[in-house]
């Protein structure tokens, strides 16, 4: 794992990144989706309970994870926090290659005031995330009265270009009433934006993962039912983005199902007929594998995906036809 902290030339504003190492044993996860987390704290602080614990939970599910500690404080206007959010998202996209991030699969996860900031980026941002995960989010402009700040009402900012949202809250949250989540879901629905909404029957505000590790020792902050939101959010992300591919064909599967463009190249080369087809189209295939033995684990389809200059689409179709004719 690679860990870094980047400052954005503002006091106490940092982006912390948790990046998976690239490994030859994880060939299907060289480039990963990412989750950028905005902790809550009423725009007066950034809660540690909604920062690293959440980031590392998503990292354990295979995502690159980032935590933005944005501008907060009594005299800090919303516009300054929003600028930090825009800067952080832009940084991830501009440096996606170095960070091994799929720039088309970046979700923003925000809680309470951080949920407001995440929803603002998804509705108001010129450059938007591709998904939003909102935990008991502040949405309504009237909520600004309680924190003595002027904030936009984000239910009024939803358009058809707003990215899909996963929202969860509790019906008896007295700090950020459930009306906030309901109004936002209603606005998404009116604009034809996909969303998933979970309103749990019981639970206090600020539950984070709702587990003992994020409870600060307070019993009210532990709620096994609400804790299911995290698993549901991962399932939801996989539904909209897809999972890491798993199309590797084992030697046993090749014996049973025959050879094809989804069979590892090293196995194809063990068959005289398959080898003849490969060397016809890729004469230096064995030299290539000597230089990079791990490439033998890839299928022709995967090689075409990552190295279309070596195996073109037309070439792949022709080899597929010839391999099928051998069966």
UniProtKB/TrEMBL annotation:
Residues 28-127 form the BD-FAE-like domain. InterPro entries: AB_hydrolase_fold (IPR029058), BD-FAE-like_dom (IPR049492), GDXG_lipolytic_enzyme (IPR050300), Peptidase_S9_cat (IPR001375). GO terms for molecular function: serine-type peptidase activity. Residues 159-208 form the Peptidase S9 prolyl oligopeptidase catalytic domain. Keywords: Hydrolase. GO terms for biological process: proteolysis. It holds the Pfam family BD-FAE. The keyword Nucleus does not apply. This is Alpha/beta hydrolase. It comes from Eisenbergiella massiliensis.
């Amino acid at each position: 794992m690679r860990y870094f902290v980047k400052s954005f030339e503002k006091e106490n504003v940092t982006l912390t990144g948790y990046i998976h190492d690239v490994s030859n044993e994880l060939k299907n996860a060289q480039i990963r989706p990412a989750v950028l987390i905005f902790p809550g704290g009423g725009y007066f602080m950034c809660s540690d309970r909604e920062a690293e614990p959440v980031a590392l939970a998503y990292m354990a599910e295979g995502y690159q994870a980032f935590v933005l500690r944005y501008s907060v404080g009594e005299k800090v206007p919303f516009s300054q926090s929003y600028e930090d959010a825009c800067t952080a998202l832009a940084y991830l996209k501009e440096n996606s290659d170095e960070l091994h991030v799929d720039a088309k699969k970046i979700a923003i996860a925000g809680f309470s005031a951080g949920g407001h900031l995440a929803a603002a980026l998804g509705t108001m941002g010129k450059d938007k995330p591709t998904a939003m995960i909102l935990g008991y989010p502040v949405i309504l402009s009237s909520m600004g009265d309680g924190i003595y700040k002027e904030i936009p009402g984000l239910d009024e900012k939803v358009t058809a270009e707003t990215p899909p949202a996963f929202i969860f809250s509790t019906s008896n949250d007295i700090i950020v009433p459930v009306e906030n989540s309901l109004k936002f879901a209603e606005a998404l629905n009116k604009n034809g934006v996909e969303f998933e909404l979970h309103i749990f029957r019981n639970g206090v505000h600020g539950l984070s993962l709702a587990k003992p590790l994020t409870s600060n020792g307070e019993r009210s902050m532990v709620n096994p039912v609400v804790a299911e939101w995290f698993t549901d959010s991962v399932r939801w992300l996989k539904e909209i983005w897809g999972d890491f591919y798993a199309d590797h064909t084992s030697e046993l599967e090749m014996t049973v199902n025959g050879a094809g463009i989804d069979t590892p190249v090293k196995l194809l080369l063990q068959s005289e007929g398959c080898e003849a087809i490969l060397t016809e189209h890729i004469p230096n295939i064995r030299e290539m594998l000597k230089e990079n033995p791990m490439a033998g684990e890839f299928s022709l389809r995967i090689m075409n995906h990552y190295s279309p200059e070596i195996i073109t689409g037309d070439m792949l179709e022709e080899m597929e036809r010839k391999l099928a004719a051998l069966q």
